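Long-time lurker, finally posting.

We've been working with DUF3298/DUF4163 domain-containing protein (Peribacillus asahii) and I want a structural starting point before designing mutants. I don't trust myself to interpret raw outputs, so I'm hoping someone here can both generate the structure tokens and explain anything notable. Sequence follows.
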Amino acid sequence: MKNIKWSRLIICWLMMFALFVSFSLPSNDAYAASSTKAKVITKTYKSKQFLKYPQVSGLKSTSAQKKINSVLLKHIQGSYKSYNQLKKDMEELQGDPLCKEYPYACQYDYTTSYKVKYNKNGKVSILIFDWMYAGGAHGSGLVTSYNFNLKTGKHYTLSDTLTSKAKYTKVTKYVKSYMSKHPDIFFESYILDDFKVDKNTQFYYTDKGIALIFQEYEVAPYAVGNPVIHVPSTVYK
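Top reply, 14 upvotes:
Generated this for you. Predicted structure of DUF3298/DUF4163 domain-containing protein:
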């Protein structure tokens, strides 16, 4: 029963965070190519060394720069909110007999970090990782991808690249084929029968197309982490 209680708390925190991030959904402005490259700097939110997030600078368009930084700032604000909720919930559990008997079961931690995956040809792709620990065997993480046009500040979704149902179908077929050829990494095929690449699949740009990055347990065991599958543009163009 204790494990169920802890699991429900973690799921609740992740759902709250995902809901907060959803308010940063991009607009449908037209794409305009640019050869600019962003300078990405690391910021610490509210002096919390475990809450690090990116901001861009040096763009020709100050308007685009503000748009991008606003979206990234909203993310870390969501991270901070999730951290405070985790802290509050775990502190309320300190009186639980389990915490007295097994102190490590009531320890908690939260970390936000990021990686720049692409930064050229007028686009930047950034992955932000939110990881939390609330006792138990291991923590839980969530990866969120952010892809921007550096000239306009447009926030791209996967649907800006896969512009039709047919393209989503082609990429799904390619990805499932790749997974079936790597059973040492991914779940068995029968578990992934209903799997589909959709607008919520996290991605980033590459020199040859896009890369899809998946959440823990989404397509592979926890030990794999966030598996990545590179999809060449020839698959969907």
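Before you design anything, note these points.
The longest strand covers residues 109-120.
Residues 2-152 form a domain with the Heat Shock Protein 90 fold (CATH 3.30.565.40).
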